[in-house]
Amino acid sequence: MKNIFYIIFGSLIVAISISFLGMPNSIADGGLVGISLLLYHAFSIPPSIVNFLGFIIILLVSYKYLAKSVLIKSTVTVLLFSFFTFLLESYGQPLGDPLVGAIFYGLFMGVGFALILYAGSSIGGASTIALVLKKKYDWNVVLVTFILDILVVISGVFVIGILNTFYTIIGLFIGKIATDYVIGGFDAKKAFSIISPYNKEIARRVMTDLSSSATYLNSSGIYKNNEHKMLYIVVKNNSVVHLRKIINEVDSDAFIVINNVKDVSGGTFFAGHNLPYETDESQE
């Protein structure tokens, strides 16, 4: 149910980006969306039609090579954002500054794309073609997607001009940052590496107060060459302040290194599950 909400909301944001920012401000994009915008700027062909028909063609080519679940989700997503675009594309008005349009186009597009990606779907286009070429010829997905997107963006020079093409590149850069930030924000975590003579007490407090887990790592200091245990803890962002408070209460002189963690797999570290690592004395 949550994924359906992300797909619907993400598709609506993408449609708003195209209709209210991309179309009236002479901004393009990469992939199939970029092609649809360039055809609109050149021949006034509605992007909703181009996106829909273009995806149908890509779907017919790729259905043998991609997982059925991915194809179903992508089909639903394209149908939704094409429908939303069809409803909205006649209401957009120029902002008067294409650069501002490009910046907010990239921002909204990045957020919408992130929601769609988080739901395990896509809006078709270059990434789908790249996945097919990966399956068939073992080509690099990231490189192929990048090349296809660049070809579409560069071709914009002949339609929207050099200046607006540069604005488009700025928008794409902002969109990439927005996508990474939103996806990271959904499942953002921090990894704490702690060295303290009171690590046992810190670990106990983490398990009882945060309902989280921890593990000991063997380590040794170079200067004194002494063996000790380093405590490694992964917590969600909303628990960072609480964990720092615990550490400070137990040992205000503890050595702490905190790293951003974008992805955690291969175990369960959080409340409501069995803990993969026990922090009792048997680990010492």
UniProtKB/TrEMBL annotation:
Coiled-coil features, chain-numbered ranges: none
Please give, as recorded in its UniProt entry, the membrane topology of this protein: Multi-pass membrane protein
What Pfam families does the entry give? DUF2179, YitT_membrane
Q: Which residues form the DUF2179 domain?
A: 213-266
Recite the UniProt keywords alphabetically. Cell membrane, Membrane, Transmembrane, Transmembrane helix
Q: Which residues cross the membrane?
A: 5-23, 43-63, 70-88, 100-120, 141-160
**Alphabetized Gene3D superfamilies for the sequence:** 3.30.70.120
Write out the annotated subcellular location: Cell membrane
Q: What is its main location?
A: membrane
Q: Keyword check for Transferase, yes or no.
A: no
Q: What is this protein called?
A: YitT family protein
Q: Name the source organism.
A: Virgibacillus byunsanensis
Q: What is the taxonomic lineage of the source species?
A: Bacteria, Bacillati, Bacillota, Bacilli, Bacillales
